[in-house]
Design a protein that fits this description.
Blueprint lengths: L8 E5 L4 H12 L3 E6 L17 E5 L5 H8 L4 E4 L12 H19 L2 E5 L11 H16 L4 E5 L2 E2 L6 H10 L3 E4 L5 E2 L2 E2 H13 L7 E4 L5 E2 H12 L5 E4 L1 H12 L10 H6 L13
Parallel strand pairs: 1-2, 1-4, 2-3, 4-5, 5-6, 6-11, 7-10, 8-13
Antiparallel strand pairs: 9-12
Helix pairs in contact: 1-6, 2-3, 3-4, 5-7
Length: about 290
Amino acid sequence: MPLANLPPLVTVFGGSGFVGRHVVRTLAKRGYRIRVAVRRPDLAGFLQPLGNVGQISFAQANLRYKDSIVRAVEDADHVVNCVGLLFENGRNTFDAVQEFGARAVAEAAKAAGATLTHISAIGADANSSIGYARTKGRAEAAIRSILPDAIVLRPSIVFGPEDDFFNKFAGMARTLPFLPLIGGGKTKFQPVYVEDVAEAVARSVDGQLKPGATYELGGQDVLTFRQCLEAVLEATYRERPMINLPFGIASLMGSVASLIPLIKPPFTSDQIALLKNDNVVSAEAEK
């Protein structure tokens, strides 16, 4: 088959992750060729059945190393960056992955002549004192300086199979006699379904979204943290009391848990700090 007749090639960084795997499936259904760029391609083989034979390939890439990013982007028509951290672990820091890595992806996409879709988060703020939000904001600024036409998607908390929010508290409800109502449970969220996020990414690749725009993604319902926990208990058919956990105590617990090696902390001090602000679509966001 002549190369000119091949479908466009999309490189998806973080394609084996929670959001990434749904992005890969949605793009595969549209007929794109997909190159999944991940640190461990040997662990991403479960993605191949999502497409036709030869439609999905793999590239070893680590957002801390520019050379691997350049190789993964070579010959791509579009690049999607799904990589993000919920907590720092060793060399995988917010600065290294969410800022340096995102900048390197944008530079590689520009060099390859590819367009770019970047998944950020509501609350991204280059001036924030919170490492997660600050590096998300700095990444957006870097991308805009390199590729002004890049599309940035900012979802609220994303839910679906294997999400790290609702499933986390469902696990707590299974093992603990109570659920922690952090900060009194007043923080507001606008949970968005992972398939809807993937559809937004696919539309950006299709060229249906405005180049250079930033879109905030939220679901139909705005829920408080308490209501989210109530939904977890209802879905899991469990009854657990909710105990108020002040922000200060929760932050201290998160800091201590983060120091324990080889375990995934239930929450971090950064995540607790983020809970002090609502996580909903702003009035001026792109529609």
